[in-house]
Please model this.
Amino acid sequence: MSRGSTETSFHTLSAELDYSMLIVTARGAGGERAGCLVGFATQTSIDPPRFLICLSRKNRTYRVARDGAGTLVVHFVPRDAEALAGLFGGETGDEVDKFARCDWHPGPDGVPVIDALETWFAGSVLEQLDLGDHVGFLLEPIAGKAHRGQRSFTFHRARRIEAGHPA
Model:
């Protein structure tokens, strides 16, 4: 099988996944805030608890996280939060202050916690991992709030959002 054919098959199979979308927020060393919609993420360990968030190298949130954010906040996006998903996925922080368009409060290490998203956790960045066009941020949870019973805003719904940055 050729490389092109393998990549085509992989992309076709990957497009069938319908995983939950997340909003990740960061606060840089100089106090700069950033946030974006994220689809590449997974729990990586139960004991000790670890979670991997993957940020596109083209994304402003990646640059803020890379340059000194010791903590990231991972927000679980409920199905009815399409407007927030659109704001954090369809706008770029290079042009728009997303935090002026939603209610939020400072969370651990001053990282923004979006008020409308009731389920979130903050994680200390343990490592940054080169994963190709994305960089993985391995997180150790340090704080959070859980709200059970909400259905997730999923990848297939997010595909309707025109991205603020190309992937």
